[in-house]
């Protein structure tokens, strides 16, 4: 298994085929000894599939277990229990020697780039090729090809300290791609970058995925990163995957409080506590938050309500488009006779998710 090289179109990938499979995977760190002994369940009973050819996002707050989850994939941390396979090969319980062939097919990039400061840009990219035993001429060609792909051909002789953060990450990406891995793990790869540079690096990762057919698992605490490039996403909290699915579904219908908070950090369609306080002061009627989007018809219940003396006002909300689907939420104030308002709320609940704003 080996991904296409820069310059050549990559395989389109076979959507749906599983590349990484977690089955009831846990990772427990044990620190200290005697009375100071402590156990941290960094990854707790995770069952999850990453499909070949996709960009899979892992989002969570600090300490949720994202880095540990991803480090299990290439065996940087051994699994405590459960089964974890990469391209059908079991990773759990393997020795370092047994892991070597699996690792050859996995590249990794890091938040702090982890470049060798004493080597040039070309030297950094060449390093994994040397380790893999490539001869000098092939290494030279491959390095040139990779630097061309990431747009740094003119910086081959520079040292990392002469580069911007975004350029350093592009060197990190070229180095990670050197031996044509099938899977790229990106650990907070844009967290040290400003918003504009973040977009540049994300666009490059998108090209790595689309043009070279490389599957990407990207860890982040920024929902904007997920929105920009992830096809599917897992939301982590306290070591557990509390929600996962296509990015559009998580955005359109977040089911857990954690996912809702991440979505509202970029969507601003759901009022936060401060907004709610203001809304309660400004609106005396019954306030409900309803999810809206393609295929959700809230017009029916609202027109029926109007026929029974219920008026509605849009107090807050918005609608956006992601991957060609529209979704969002509206906060409605309903006024009128109590039984008729109650009837409208029940009718709305039949067509969409309705959350009541407590008075
Ligand atoms: N080597 C280790 N020894 C002991 N505990 C660890 C170790 N690595 C991680 N942990 C603990 O495991 C939990 C999950 O950490 P992890 O770094 O995976 O989370 P994260 O979501 O990636 O957080 P961050 O975004 O801050 O890196 C934390 O409680 C952390 O302190």
What does this structure look like?
The chain is built from 12 helices and 14 strands. It has 2 domains: 18-105 and 181-265, Rossmann fold (3-Layer(aba) Sandwich); 271-356, Alpha-Beta Plaits (2-Layer Sandwich). Helices cover 36% and strands 29% of the residues. The termini are far apart. Strand 1 and strand 2 (38-51) form a beta hairpin. It is elongated, with a radius of gyration of 24 Å. Helix 5 packs parallel to helix 6 and helix 11 (299-307) runs antiparallel to helix 12 (338-351). The protein is an alpha/beta fold. The model is unreliable at 7-13 (pLDDT under 50). Bound molecules: adenosine-5'-triphosphate. The site of adenosine-5'-triphosphate has 13 residues, from strand 1, strand 2 and helix 1. GO terms for molecular function: ATP binding. Keywords: Amino-acid transport, ATP-binding, Cell membrane, Membrane, Nucleotide-binding, Translocase, Transport.
The percent of residues in helical segments reads: 25-40%
For the record, what is the CATH homologous superfamily label of the largest domain?
P-loop containing nucleotide triphosphate hydrolases
User: Helical stretch count?
Assistant: 12
CATH architecture of the largest domain: 3-Layer(aba) Sandwich
Q: Could you give the count of β-strands?
A: 14
**Ligands bound to this protein structure:** adenosine-5'-triphosphate
Task: Report the structural category.
Answer: alpha/beta
CATH topology of the largest domain: the name is Rossmann fold
- Average of per-residue pLDDT values: 91
Tell me the overall shape.
elongated
Enumerate the strands of the largest sheet in spatial order, edge to edge or round the barrel: 6-7-8-3-9-10
Counted up, domains total 2
Strand content: 25-35%
Biggest sheet architecture: 6 strands, mixed
Rg: 24 Å
CATH class of the largest domain: Alpha Beta
Low-confidence stretches: 7-13
| H and E string | EEEHEEHEHHHEHEHEEHHHEHEEHE
Question: How far is it from the N-terminal to the C-terminal residue, by CA?
Answer: 59 Å
Protein name: Methionine import ATP-binding protein MetN
Keywords: Amino-acid transport, ATP-binding, Cell membrane, Membrane, Nucleotide-binding, Translocase, Transport
GO molecular function, one term: ATP binding
Organism: Kocuria flava
């Amino acid at each position: 298994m080996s991904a296409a090289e820069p310059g050549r179109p990559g395989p389109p990938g076979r959507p749906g085929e599983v590349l990484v499979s977690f089955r009831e995977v846990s990772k427990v760190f044990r620190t200290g000894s005697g009375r100071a002994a402590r156990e941290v369940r960094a990854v707790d009973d995770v069952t999850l599939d990453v499909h070949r050819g996709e960009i899979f996002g892992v989002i969570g707050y600090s300490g949720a277990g994202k880095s540990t989850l991803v480090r299990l994939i290439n065996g940087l941390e051994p699994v405590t229990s459960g089964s974890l396979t990469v391209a059908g090969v079991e990773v759990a319980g393997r020795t370092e020697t047994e892991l070597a062939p699996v690792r050859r097919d996995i590249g990794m990039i890091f938040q702090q780039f982890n470049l060798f400061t004493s080597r040039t840009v070309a030297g950094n990219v060449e390093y994994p090729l040397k380790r893999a035993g490539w001869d000098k001429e092939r290494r030279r060609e491959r390095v040139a090809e990779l630097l061309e792909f990431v747009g740094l051909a003119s910086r081959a002789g520079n040292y990392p300290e002469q580069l911007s953060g975004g350029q350093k990450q592009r060197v990190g990406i070229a180095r990670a791609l050197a031996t044509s891995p099938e899977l790229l793990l990106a650990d907070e790869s844009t967290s040290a970058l400003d918003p504009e540079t973040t977009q540049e690096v994300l666009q490059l990762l998108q090209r790595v995925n689309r043009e070279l057919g490389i599957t990407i698992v990207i860890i982040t605490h920024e929902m904007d990163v997920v929105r920009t490039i992830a096809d599917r996403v897992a939301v982590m909290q306290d070591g557990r995957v509390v929600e996962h699915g296509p990015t559009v579904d998580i955005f359109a219908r977040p089911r857990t409080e954690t996912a809702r908070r991440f979505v509202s950090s970029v969507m601003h369609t759901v009022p936060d506590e401060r907004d709610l306080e203001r809304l309660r002061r400004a609106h005396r009627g019954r306030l409900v938050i309803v999810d809206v989007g393609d295929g959700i018809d809230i017009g029916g219940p609202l027109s029926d309500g109007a026929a029974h003396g219920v008026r509605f006002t849009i107090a807050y909300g918005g609608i956006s488009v992601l991957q060609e689907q529209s979704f969002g939420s509206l906060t409605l104030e309903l006024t009128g006779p109590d039984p008729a308002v109650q009837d409208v709320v029940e009718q709305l609940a039949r067509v969409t998710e309705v959350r009541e704003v407590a008075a």
